[in-house]
Amino acid sequence: MSVFVEVDHVDQVFDLPNGGQYIALKNITLDIRKGEFISLIGHSGCGKSTLLNIIAGLTQPVSGGVVLEGKQVTKPGPDRMVVFQNYSLLPWLTVRENIALAVNRVMRELSASERKAIIESHIDLVKLRHAADKKPGQLSGGMKQRVAIARALAIRPKLLLLDEPFGALDALTRSSLQDQLMQIAQEHELTCVMVTHDVDEALLLSDRVVMLTNGPESYVGQVLEVPFPRPRERLEVVKHPSYYGMRNEVVYFLNQQKQAKKRKVLQAAPIARNGLEKVNLELGFIPLTDCAPLVIAKEKGFFQEYGLEQVALSREPGWKAIAEGITTGRLDAAQMVAGMPLALTLGMGGKAPLPVVTALVMSRNGNAITFGKRLLHEGVRTLADFKDYLVRSSDKVPTLATVHPASMHNLMLRYWLASGGIDPDQDVNIVIIPPTQMVSTLKAGTIDGYCAGEPWNSRAVQEGLGYVIATDLDIWSGHLEKVLGVREDWAAQYPKTHLALVKALLKACEYCDDFRNREELVEILARPEYVGADPAHLRPGLVTPYDRGMGDEPESLLRYNQFYVDRTNCPYRAEGLWIMTQLARWGITPFPRNWLSILDRTRRVDVFGAAARDLGLLDIEPNRSPVTLSDGSVFNPDDPIGYLNSLPIKRTIQVEEITIDTPEPSTV
Predict the structure, then answer these.
(1) pLDDT in tens, 174-229
(2) Is 582 helix (H, G, I), strand (E, B) or coil?
(3) CB 3.0–4.6 Å: which of 509, 552, 558, 618 could bond 563 by disulfide?
(4) Quick check: 331 and 577 in contact, CB under 8 A?
């Protein structure tokens, strides 16, 4: 069904008396179909009514907009009518006159008799014939609300907007009006958007319940599809087998938002110099091509440009050392594999959960699956070939390596294998090896292949040891790869330093994705203190066409190493959610029942947005829409558990509430 109303990346900001600004709504995107009933639900102050007023055209957003039937909404109009909680009736006019006021104003082209017929029919529609000549002061609250609804419907709006229309009514009156509204909406195919605090009301009336997170920067946290058939009877809805499960889902969301407000917030450290709390930092990295943003920020003076006086880059032996450095406080921040902040926050490996956050994606893509040449001689050129090889060589279990359990290398390798009907825990053996040891271990024959970042794939190809059977562009083009990770308590202690660090690295990411700088980038990365590799191993995919080592012509892979273009750098919450499903899929961590709370704590879209705005860059998080992956499976960020259950190859899924205490600031 085509989109009837499109809320397109709406932001709303209010000026504060102290000269600051309050970001009420951030990147609200919502498509509404004709005849659909949408409820907006969330705690007070989350921006529900603000969003409704923007849709009505009563206020204008600072960015984004609303489109109704192909036309942008720029002001109020008769195609949108609002029913407020306080009725908004003129007290000196009767029921008939209040309705007539709207009809006579909007439908001037009709004859007096036609307008009168419309007025009288809507008096009957809301069952107020007996009170048609009474004034509002003579009516009950429920009767006044019926007048407001009749007045709104009488001008035949395309969109009916309701702002807690039944909130002040007694239970019996509220139930009666809800039933009438349901009947009217269905008979007239009305498109409705309603603000409510009442979960049962939302489930009774709605086709979808849109749940908004707490402000500031409120966003659409979850959308719940309501499957109850229409026409609806109140008792039948309550008896529906999905009713209480769905009700619990909404209540759980609201409770999570309530708990988030109560979470302890550490005080920021005093300002040291340059407007920052801390100006000397130690940052960890692994010698890989995609450590480039950290290296460039140091070499080009971007750290100093944003007030960070001394930044030391610590070349770490592996991802385990990176995790240790952040956990103990030895490192202020680090380049991390994409799933590491989430895995540490969820307590991977039975350890106590330690909240680690990311406000920046530093790179996308850049990985490959490399097999030893022996498998090429066995005719293994595709995933299907590998499946056939496993069937005919069932007495041999190949060993494949990856770099960290929570890395995209591990998750993508497993995803790729499972998409071909290969169980990564039963049909092959997967081991963890630091990326710098991949080539030597392959050469020794200890492993049959690996998934790693560059330059370790190209080195194996150029030394005649292996071939690339797949790049991550073949599996999920544009996936996040390396992120900036800091402890949550560090980010709370040093918020201005954190922001400065993100800005410096954002500028470096932009520099790295300018192809005019790529030759220089190769020369810098090749230095011993950074990657320490032969420039020939760094160039494929970064500068020159990519050779898979299978005898074919090298391919031009323009996005093989992606640092900035196509909104690389925003730490999308939906991507973090997908990572959590994969960690749960393979038994690496449980899937958190409180997944939205975990995402809010670990994916610091607000810090990224502040940095991007300071640099004059786009700060919008992409749409939270379903994603179709390479094997045809669809990931719906509103139903992650349903997605997990749909996957044919997986371990037993554990869903648990993850309790995370805010740690004391590290003194290490």
Answers:
(1) 888 888 888 888 888 889 999 999 999 999 999 999 999 998 999 999 999 999 99
(2) helix
(3) 509
(4) no
Q: Please, what is the angle between helix 595-602 and helix 573-585, to 10°?
A: 120
Query: What's the Cα-to-Cα distance from 461 to each of 289, 430, 574, 621, rounded to whole Å?
Result: 16, 21, 35, 37
Q: Report all structural domains of the chain as residue ranges with CATH numbers, in order of start.
A: 3-262 (3.40.50.300), 280-359+480-532+571-656 (3.40.190.10)
Rounded to two decimals, what is the model's pTM? 0.89
What is the 3-class SS of 98-124, one letter each residue? HHHHHHHHHCCCCCHHHHHHHHHHHHH
% helix / strand / coil in the chain, to the nearest 5? 40, 20, 40
Q: State residue 94 phi and psi, 5-degree precision.
A: -75, 175
CA distance 130 to 122: 13
Distance CA 299, CA 529 (A): 12
In sequence order, the 6+-apart residues with CB closer than 8 A to the CB of 612 are 506, 569, 570, 618, 619
Q: Could you give the dihedral angle defined by the CA atoms of residues 323, 329, 330 and 331, in that order, rounded to the nearest 10 degrees?
A: 70
The long-range contacts involving 265-270, CB below 8 angstroms and separated by at least 24 positions, are 265/492, 266/489, 266/492, 266/493, 266/662, 266/665, 267/492, 267/493, 268/492, 268/493, 268/494, 268/495, 268/496, 269/493, 269/494
- Residue 254 to residue 245: CA distance in whole angstroms: 14
* Distance from C-alpha of 287 to C-alpha of 359, rounded to nearest angstrom: 22
Collapse the DSSP code of 462 into the 3-class scheme (helix H, G, I; strand E, B; otherwise coil) and give the result. Answer: helix
For 296, phi then psi, to 5°, come to -70, -40
Distance between first and last Cα of the chain: 58
Question: In the 8-state DSSP scheme, what is residue 554?
Answer: P
Q: Are 302 and 504 in contact (CB under 8 A)?
A: yes
Nearest one of 390, 394, 399 to 430, comparing CA atoms: 399
Take residue 598 and report the two structure tokens written for it: 């975990």
In order of 64, 103, 153, the CA distances from 82 in angstroms are 21, 15, 10
- Residue (of 164, 160, 157) closest to 49 by Cα position: 164
At 543, list the tokens.
């500068």
Token pair for 430: 């997967």
pLDDT tens digits, 382-426? 999 999 999 998 888 999 999 999 999 999 999 999 999 999 999
Q: Which residue's structure tokens are 């379903």?
A: 626
